[in-house]
Amino acid sequence: MEPNPPASPIWELAARAEERWPAIDSAREHADRTKQQLTELVSDLLPAEDASVVVFGSLARGEVTSGSDTDWTLLVDGQASSTHLDVAHRVEAMLADADQKGPGREATFGGLAFSHELLHRIGGGDDTNRNLTQRILLLLESAALGPAEAHERVIRGILNRYINEDAGWNERTVTVPRFLLNDVARYWRTVAVDFAYKRRDRAEEGWALRTIKLRMSRKLTYASGLLACFSCDEEPSITEADDRSKAVIEHLLTLVALTPLERIAHIALRKSLTEPAVMLFRSYDAFLRLLDDTEAREHLQELARSEARDDATFVRARQIGHDFQAALDGIFFGENGSHIPQLTTKYGVF
Hints:
Helix 6 packs across helix 8 (178-201), helix 7 packs across helix 11 (244-256) and helix 13 packs antiparallel against helix 16. The protein has 17 helices and 4 strands. The two termini are 32 Å apart. The protein is globular, with a radius of gyration of 20 Å. It is mainly alpha-helical and 350 residues long. Strands 3-2-1-4 form a 4-stranded mixed sheet. Strand 2, helix 4 and strand 3 form a beta-alpha-beta unit. It has helices at residues 9-17, 22-42, 57-61, 83-97, 115-120, 129-140, 149-164, 178-201, 207-230, 236-239, 244-256, 260-270, 274-291, 294-302, 305-308, 312-332, 340-348; strands spanning 51-55, 72-76, 112-114, 143-145.
């Protein structure tokens, strides 16, 4: 049986390094309080067990700072009903009354999402950017407010598709979930391409803040997804199982229940990646401290690209991004004693 992860692998990693990351702790406490408040607001709205109110983004990652918005959707996993849209409208109104900043203008979140599209439209012309984003973030950074049955069923169903259609698990010819890994990589490339699209479409409005988020929180989610896939290789609960397909699904379910930071800390502790992981957490703590500085955040939101090169706040943010990338290089490419660099070469490029 897959061992349960500790209550907070981040705390275990911090204790091992004899360090504290106060901005990470503060953002997590802020997220926990906000989720508790919102859960109390929406719990009575849900129709039976066929829907969950699901949050994404900073709230799901446990990284709420002073300017965070609330990305959410009403996830339906059951018979379609005209009442679902009414519930979604009431959720939207309640979040607005609670002074929660709504989803972004791309409308990837907010409103309804249906399990049919998320499970059955993986790849192909009908798998839109919105569908891909919601599916991958459902796995890598989502949390249910209140009843979670629909949320948990859909996540298990998506993982069933990725693993059971990746032939070779029970023949022991596969050690890394390639179907899932390729879709996680596709999500990251889509985010990076959309960054360029938004820069042009919005005439570079908010460019500096989006740049640092791309380099930090968006990349963190991608890296945590790659590590989750690579962690299946040589995992005893999988290699020793009679039904390896079932074992890898259970292993991944354990990991997707964690936030991206918790996921990286959990895997780092098990794969002897403590040193580069500590570097990563130091830089991420500095990133969250910067985001929680209202003056600095608003300055980055308004900063023109032409002025960024010599701007002290942006230079500081860029250095944090460089430190974060150096830590990722140490995890995925460095001589760190783990087999992650070999897996990166074998599966992460082609």
